[in-house]
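Comment thread on ticket #2218

A.B. wrote:
> Attaching the input chain for the structure job we discussed in standup.
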Amino acid sequence: MAASDRADSLNALLRRLYPICRSITGDGVRETLRILQEIVPLEIREVPSGTPVLDWTVPMEWNIREAWIETLRGERVIDSRSSNLHVVSYSVPVRRRISLKELEPHLHSIPEHPDWIPYRTSYYDKDWGFCLTQRQRESLTEEEYEVCIDSTLEPGHLTFGELLLPGELQDEVLISTHVCHPSLANDNLSGIAVSAFLAAWLAGRARRYSYRFLFIPGTIGSITWLALERDAVRRVKHGLTLVCLGDERGFTYKKTVSGAAEIDRVVAHVLRHLEGDHEVIDFFPYGYDERQFNSPGFRLPVGSLMRGRHGKFPEYHCSADDLGFISAARLEEALTLARRIVDVLEGNRLYRNQSPYGEPQLGRRGLYRAPGGSGLPAETQLAMLWVLNLSDGSHSLLDVAERARMPFSVVRRAVDLLADHALLKECPSP
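C.D. wrote:
> Ran it. Output below, let me know if you need it in another format.
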């Protein structure tokens, strides 16, 4: 599929997912996962409310039908049908006449951005509320209003999607993205879309590693998976959370807690050979689900790939994070980057030079490019020399690419040429 076609497909998926009212549980998550099943064969899993998961408990399931504020004359001034951000996620049911003074503590706005609606939650507090623009808030001047939040908060399930793509090895690469936000495009429809299309691409190719994709509610979802899947946890060798990938900023990679995992080196290497600005930052215990995977009891080597950072862009967690804030071209760039990361993980192997005493004669094998002559590019020839020199069974191809300061793809091409001429032999995986 061409890049432009991929961008169109990513954009089409986002437009279908954007109107859905999602939270950490409920029908919005189920609807989202059913749409993703059209792209990849996700298993939809459900864990009952009340299930103990590590130090947490799976919460009651929340669903919302409608939420509004009306004047006593029946004029609807706030309506969740115009934006599902208008209702505080996990609001308990309310239907009453209320004074403006009593209503005020239940209202949330952003004074510095008077036309933006904030996104607020009350997951673990039995509370209720409305989010509105500052201009809407200032227009509420009557003494009393009718308020309605037609919601349910009752025993049900936490729902998440999982896909395992088996490879030659049982060792796994974990790709995780959160699916708990309502109409927020960058955070995190962008991560959902890139993860789904990355999974679809991987499903159609041979794999050395096994790949596990999680589409989970933030925090409680990763905690639930970690609690229930201890055997799978032990097989995770590399991992990424994919978040906030559709805005105009350059890429940011947040390292694992060790800062020296193979995934840290792989992503840093790929970014180094990417056009445009990027940043690699150290781990800190705040942000997305990488903090659960990197917790002391698990210490899974899971980094986080993003553009805009958690809480660091003005549009974060408000209505300004809409479909106009992101672009299909940026999503396609993120998907291409993720695919390159996978290519390095898959191709990072150990080799041994089969003619290690001195430099083998490349000319008689058709691998030598005479000065000014035609044939192999000079970069490929230099890459072959680096590979031959460092392939002693202890240096990986990533070691070679870093030492040679060359893109991994160039080194990989050199390896293929040398192996075709019996000058290299792959070593067993450690």
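A.B. wrote:
> Thanks. Noting for the ticket: Residues 328-347 form the longest helix (20 residues).
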